[in-house]
Structure formats: structure tokens, C-alpha cells
What we know:
Layout: H1 8-19, H2 24-31, H3 35-45, H4 50-85
Helix pairs in contact: 1-3, 2-3
Amino acid sequence: MKRKRYTEEKIISMLKQHEGGRTMVELAREHGIAENTLYRCKSKYGGMEVSEAKRLRELQAENRRLKHLLGEAELDKAAMKEIIEGKW
């Protein structure tokens, strides 16, 4: 079964409908997702606007990239130490 991926805009609109008075059960049935998924989305995107969610995604991507660069730098540093100590 193929997983449906909703955009931040769609998730936030669903959460705004919930704030407007619709139940999570109704929203889950309407969109064909599990109720737990909506609660998980609520914990992540609750109270956010669309622009804030996009910024969060950009920051997560930048953080992932920086962690990758740091890992590579640490590997280079360890290799240099081995060369200096003559363990090669």
C-alpha cells in the first residue's frame, strides 16, 4: 500500500479544521489517514503557520547538511592524526 505524504500546508489546514471544531476521527476518515498520525502531526505542527513550517523544514535540511560536513571533517582529522603518528 502506497503511503500518502501530505504537505505542511495540507497538514496545517487539517489542524486548523480541528481547532475550528471538527473531531480528529472525522478528519482522519475524510483524509484517509490514521488518527494517531493526526495527533503526531499536531505535536509537530500545532500552532504553526505555513511559513513557519516551511522555515522549519529548511532549517532541518541545513542542520542535516552541516552534520554531514562535520562528520566528514572529523574523519579527515582522524586520518591526519594516523598519518602523523605513522600508523599507516
